[in-house]
Fold this sequence. Notes:
The protein is built from 3 helices and 2 strands; from the N terminus they run αβαβα. Helix content is 30%, strand content 10%. The protein has a two-stranded antiparallel ribbon.
Amino acid sequence: MKSIIAGQQSQSVYMDVRQLAQAAAVMVDDILNERESEVDNSADCDNGVKLVPAVLLQPLSVDKTNYDVLVQSEYITADQLK
């Protein structure tokens, strides 16, 4: 983010790892308790052997105009960007 603020980098992709961890934990809990997991996509994720059910979270393109979303989501502090 510091490189984006300094104008050295144009953009980056952000996906909140806390959301990824939560989705993974729910899926693991479902598997351990022999429940069928809710998935967003079961047709497009092919690992070469089979179609793999997946929960797809939306990434966010972050640039100089919207990097404050990281502070608002408490992923990073404003002091860390100085």
